[in-house]
Amino acid sequence: MSVRAIVSVGMFAAVVFDFDGVLIDSESPGFESHRRIYEQCGAALTVEEWCGQIGTYVEGEEEGWYLRLCERTTRSPERAVYEAERRRLFEELVPREPMRGIRELLAELDSAGVPLAIASTAPARWVVTAAERIGVRALFRAIVTGDEVARRKPAPDVYLEAARRLGVDPSKTIAIEDSAPGIASARAAGMQTVVIPHWLTELHDLSGADLRVAHAGELSLARLATLVQK
Protein backbone atom coordinates (compact mmCIF):
# COMPACT_ATOMS: atom_id res chain seq x y z
CA MET A 1 0.00 0.00 0.00
CA SER A 2 1.37 3.43 -0.93
CA VAL A 3 1.89 6.14 1.65
CA ARG A 4 -0.90 8.22 0.10
CA ALA A 5 -3.21 5.21 0.36
CA ILE A 6 -2.29 4.82 4.02
CA VAL A 7 -3.30 8.42 4.61
CA SER A 8 -6.50 8.15 2.61
CA VAL A 9 -7.87 5.09 4.39
CA GLY A 10 -7.27 6.61 7.79
CA MET A 11 -4.46 4.35 9.01
CA PHE A 12 -2.40 7.52 9.41
CA ALA A 13 -4.55 10.26 10.87
CA ALA A 14 -2.41 13.29 11.68
CA VAL A 15 0.88 14.58 13.05
CA VAL A 16 0.99 16.85 16.08
CA PHE A 17 4.17 18.78 16.83
CA ASP A 18 5.49 20.19 20.05
CA PHE A 19 6.74 23.73 19.45
CA ASP A 20 9.77 24.82 21.48
CA GLY A 21 12.77 22.64 20.71
CA VAL A 22 10.99 20.84 17.85
CA LEU A 23 9.78 23.45 15.37
CA ILE A 24 12.01 26.29 16.58
CA ASP A 25 15.14 26.28 18.70
CA SER A 26 13.90 28.63 21.38
CA GLU A 27 15.35 26.35 24.07
CA SER A 28 18.95 27.46 23.46
CA PRO A 29 18.16 31.21 23.57
CA GLY A 30 16.00 30.66 26.65
CA PHE A 31 18.87 29.07 28.54
CA GLU A 32 21.61 31.29 27.13
CA SER A 33 19.80 34.56 27.87
CA HIS A 34 19.50 33.58 31.53
CA ARG A 35 23.01 32.11 31.71
CA ARG A 36 24.60 35.31 30.38
CA ILE A 37 22.85 37.48 32.95
CA TYR A 38 23.89 35.11 35.74
CA GLU A 39 27.47 35.24 34.46
CA GLN A 40 27.44 39.04 34.27
CA CYS A 41 26.42 39.06 37.93
CA GLY A 42 29.13 36.60 38.97
CA ALA A 43 26.82 33.59 39.36
CA ALA A 44 26.52 30.27 37.54
CA LEU A 45 23.51 28.66 35.89
CA THR A 46 24.05 25.04 34.87
CA VAL A 47 22.53 23.00 32.08
CA GLU A 48 21.52 20.38 34.64
CA GLU A 49 19.31 22.72 36.66
CA TRP A 50 17.87 24.36 33.55
CA CYS A 51 16.94 21.20 31.66
CA GLY A 52 14.74 19.96 34.49
CA GLN A 53 12.04 22.50 33.64
CA ILE A 54 12.02 21.99 29.86
CA GLY A 55 8.73 20.64 28.59
CA THR A 56 6.71 22.15 31.42
CA TYR A 57 5.35 25.62 32.11
CA VAL A 58 4.65 27.25 35.45
CA GLU A 59 3.21 30.72 35.94
CA GLY A 60 5.80 32.88 37.66
CA GLU A 61 8.66 30.77 36.33
CA GLU A 62 10.69 33.83 35.35
CA GLU A 63 10.32 35.21 38.85
CA GLY A 64 11.83 31.98 40.12
CA TRP A 65 14.97 32.31 37.99
CA TYR A 66 15.37 35.90 39.15
CA LEU A 67 15.04 34.92 42.81
CA ARG A 68 17.65 32.17 42.34
CA LEU A 69 20.03 34.79 40.99
CA CYS A 70 19.39 37.03 44.00
CA GLU A 71 20.21 34.12 46.31
CA ARG A 72 23.54 33.50 44.57
CA THR A 73 24.94 37.01 44.27
CA THR A 74 24.69 40.49 45.72
CA ARG A 75 25.16 41.93 42.23
CA SER A 76 21.71 41.09 40.89
CA PRO A 77 19.94 43.95 39.06
CA GLU A 78 16.47 45.25 39.79
CA ARG A 79 13.72 42.89 38.63
CA ALA A 80 12.64 45.17 35.76
CA VAL A 81 16.23 45.54 34.54
CA TYR A 82 16.74 41.78 34.69
CA GLU A 83 13.60 41.12 32.68
CA ALA A 84 14.38 43.76 30.06
CA GLU A 85 17.87 42.36 29.52
CA ARG A 86 16.58 38.79 29.37
CA ARG A 87 14.05 39.73 26.71
CA ARG A 88 16.67 41.65 24.73
CA LEU A 89 19.08 38.73 24.75
CA PHE A 90 16.37 36.23 23.87
CA GLU A 91 15.20 38.28 20.88
CA GLU A 92 18.79 38.68 19.75
CA LEU A 93 19.46 34.93 19.93
CA VAL A 94 16.19 33.31 18.84
CA PRO A 95 16.38 32.01 15.24
CA ARG A 96 14.16 33.19 12.41
CA GLU A 97 14.10 29.77 10.77
CA PRO A 98 12.64 26.38 11.80
CA MET A 99 14.90 23.65 13.11
CA ARG A 100 16.83 21.35 10.79
CA GLY A 101 14.62 19.36 8.43
CA ILE A 102 11.35 20.81 9.73
CA ARG A 103 10.46 22.91 6.71
CA GLU A 104 10.96 19.95 4.36
CA LEU A 105 9.02 17.53 6.59
CA LEU A 106 6.11 19.93 6.94
CA ALA A 107 6.02 20.48 3.19
CA GLU A 108 5.93 16.73 2.52
CA LEU A 109 3.17 16.10 5.06
CA ASP A 110 1.13 19.06 3.87
CA SER A 111 1.49 17.99 0.23
CA ALA A 112 0.13 14.55 1.15
CA GLY A 113 -2.87 16.11 2.90
CA VAL A 114 -1.88 15.03 6.40
CA PRO A 115 -3.61 17.20 9.04
CA LEU A 116 -1.05 19.02 11.17
CA ALA A 117 -1.32 20.63 14.59
CA ILE A 118 0.84 22.17 17.28
CA ALA A 119 0.43 21.10 20.91
CA SER A 120 2.53 23.27 23.19
CA THR A 121 2.57 23.87 26.90
CA ALA A 122 3.73 27.45 26.26
CA PRO A 123 1.25 30.36 26.04
CA ALA A 124 -0.45 31.33 22.78
CA ARG A 125 1.08 34.81 22.78
CA TRP A 126 4.47 33.20 22.13
CA VAL A 127 3.60 30.14 20.03
CA VAL A 128 1.36 31.80 17.43
CA THR A 129 3.66 34.79 16.95
CA ALA A 130 6.80 32.67 16.66
CA ALA A 131 5.13 30.20 14.26
CA GLU A 132 4.29 33.13 12.01
CA ARG A 133 7.80 34.51 12.28
CA ILE A 134 9.44 31.29 11.09
CA GLY A 135 6.89 30.95 8.29
CA VAL A 136 5.04 27.78 9.29
CA ARG A 137 1.81 29.06 10.85
CA ALA A 138 -0.32 28.55 7.73
CA LEU A 139 0.52 24.84 7.55
CA PHE A 140 -1.21 23.99 10.83
CA ARG A 141 -4.94 23.41 11.02
CA ALA A 142 -4.89 23.72 14.81
CA ILE A 143 -2.64 25.26 17.45
CA VAL A 144 -3.31 24.29 21.06
CA THR A 145 -1.39 26.02 23.83
CA GLY A 146 -1.05 25.59 27.55
CA ASP A 147 -3.26 28.53 28.41
CA GLU A 148 -6.19 26.89 26.58
CA VAL A 149 -6.39 23.67 28.61
CA ALA A 150 -6.96 22.74 32.23
CA ARG A 151 -3.67 20.89 32.67
CA ARG A 152 -0.34 21.38 30.94
CA LYS A 153 2.16 18.67 30.00
CA PRO A 154 2.86 15.99 31.20
CA ALA A 155 -0.96 15.73 31.32
CA PRO A 156 -2.45 14.75 27.92
CA ASP A 157 -4.80 17.73 27.58
CA VAL A 158 -3.03 19.65 24.78
CA TYR A 159 -2.67 16.53 22.64
CA LEU A 160 -6.23 15.39 23.20
CA GLU A 161 -7.51 18.85 22.33
CA ALA A 162 -5.36 18.95 19.18
CA ALA A 163 -6.81 15.61 18.06
CA ARG A 164 -10.33 16.84 18.83
CA ARG A 165 -9.87 19.99 16.76
CA LEU A 166 -8.46 17.98 13.86
CA GLY A 167 -11.26 15.44 14.17
CA VAL A 168 -8.86 12.48 14.33
CA ASP A 169 -8.35 9.39 16.46
CA PRO A 170 -5.41 9.98 18.86
CA SER A 171 -4.37 6.32 18.52
CA LYS A 172 -3.78 6.91 14.79
CA THR A 173 -1.88 10.12 15.38
CA ILE A 174 1.85 10.75 15.76
CA ALA A 175 3.31 13.27 18.19
CA ILE A 176 6.78 14.73 17.68
CA GLU A 177 8.48 15.81 20.90
CA ASP A 178 11.84 16.69 22.43
CA SER A 179 11.31 16.25 26.18
CA ALA A 180 10.29 13.70 28.78
CA PRO A 181 7.17 15.65 29.90
CA GLY A 182 6.13 15.95 26.26
CA ILE A 183 6.55 12.24 25.61
CA ALA A 184 4.52 11.45 28.73
CA SER A 185 1.78 13.83 27.58
CA ALA A 186 1.53 12.33 24.09
CA ARG A 187 1.61 8.75 25.37
CA ALA A 188 -1.11 9.53 27.90
CA ALA A 189 -3.19 10.79 24.98
CA GLY A 190 -2.69 7.43 23.26
CA MET A 191 -0.44 8.69 20.47
CA GLN A 192 2.65 7.17 18.90
CA THR A 193 5.61 9.36 19.77
CA VAL A 194 8.77 10.40 17.96
CA VAL A 195 11.46 12.18 19.94
CA ILE A 196 14.03 14.55 18.47
CA PRO A 197 16.29 15.28 21.43
CA HIS A 198 17.42 18.85 21.86
CA TRP A 199 20.91 19.23 23.30
CA LEU A 200 19.28 20.62 26.45
CA THR A 201 16.99 17.58 26.85
CA GLU A 202 19.66 14.91 26.35
CA LEU A 203 19.62 14.42 30.13
CA HIS A 204 15.90 13.58 30.10
CA ASP A 205 14.71 9.98 30.11
CA LEU A 206 13.46 9.78 26.53
CA SER A 207 13.03 6.01 26.47
CA GLY A 208 9.24 6.29 26.35
CA ALA A 209 9.29 7.39 22.71
CA ASP A 210 8.47 4.88 19.96
CA LEU A 211 11.15 6.31 17.68
CA ARG A 212 14.21 8.47 18.28
CA VAL A 213 15.90 10.48 15.52
CA ALA A 214 18.66 13.08 15.54
CA HIS A 215 16.76 15.70 13.54
CA ALA A 216 13.60 16.09 11.47
CA GLY A 217 15.55 15.46 8.28
CA GLU A 218 15.62 11.78 9.28
CA LEU A 219 11.82 11.65 9.13
CA SER A 220 9.56 11.25 6.12
CA LEU A 221 5.92 10.50 5.45
CA ALA A 222 6.81 6.90 4.65
CA ARG A 223 8.76 6.42 7.87
CA LEU A 224 6.00 7.91 9.99
CA ALA A 225 3.39 5.74 8.26
CA THR A 226 5.43 2.65 9.13
CA LEU A 227 5.50 3.74 12.76
CA VAL A 228 1.71 4.01 12.96
CA GLN A 229 1.26 0.54 11.43
CA LYS A 230 3.33 -1.17 14.15
Overview of the structural elements:
With about 230 residues, the chain is of the alpha/beta class. The chain folds into two domains: about 5-25 and about 95-230, HAD superfamily/HAD-like (Rossmann fold); about 25-95. The protein is about 45% helix and about 10% strand. It contains ten helices and six strands, in the order H-E-H-H-H-H-H-E-H-E-H-E-H-E-E-H. The protein has a six-stranded parallel beta sheet, with helices on both faces. Helix 2 (about 25-40) packs across helix 5 (about 80-95). The protein is elongated, with a radius of gyration of 18 Å.
Defining key terms:
single chain; about 230 residues; alpha/beta; Rossmann fold; 6-stranded parallel β-sheet; 6 strands
List the helices and strands and how they pair.
Elements: H1 3-8, E1 14-17, H2 27-40, H3 47-51, H4 61-72, H5 79-93, H6 102-111, E2 116-119, H7 124-133, E3 142-144, H8 157-166, E4 173-177, H9 180-188, E5 192-195, E6 211-212, H10 221-228
Parallel strand pairs: 1-2, 1-4, 2-3, 4-5, 5-6
Q: What's the overall average pLDDT, rounded?
A: 93
End-to-end distance, in Å?
15 Å
Shape: elongated
In N-to-C order, the SSE pattern is: HEHHHHHEHEHEHEEH
